[in-house]
Amino acid sequence: MRFVFIRKKWIFFVVAAILMGSLYFLTTETVPTFQSTQTSNEEITINMVTGEFSTTTADGKKLEAYRWDPGTIMIPKGQDVTLKIFGVNGEEHPFYIEGTDIKGTVKKGEETVIPLNFTTEGTYRLICDTHTHEGHNEVPPMIAYLVVD
């Protein structure tokens, strides 16, 4: 017959772990990582920029990737929102918002202002016509996601 010896410090660690685990499951209130302080009557302004990443591989091949930053934005349904996009990289980015009639061009060094008000929930893609898959096989498309909720 074998005897198992349990040291006091191991009992302390086990009890502490059980208490921490039970506190996690007993906590009913969640704490949001971000909470908007704007009221629903105020107009929301969202700022976005164009960005470029480029590098050269060991064999001398140049790789580029363009993006909207931030790549995903949340927009309240039925709320007036102003989207301001500042052109940082690339001479120009002609764009459209999928599922809408919204089109425009973001030019380097300039700010493009787009008034938005979505009445239907869903995810809308902001797509750059210059940087899509066609003709840029190795470059990912330049797409941002507008999530309306």
TrEMBL record:
SUPFAM superfamilies: Cupredoxins. Residues 44-135 form the EfeO-type cupredoxin-like domain. Pfam families: Cupredoxin_1 (PF13473). It comes from the Bacteria. InterPro entries: Cupredoxin, EfeO_Cupredoxin. This is Cupredoxin domain-containing protein. It comes from Metabacillus halosaccharovorans.
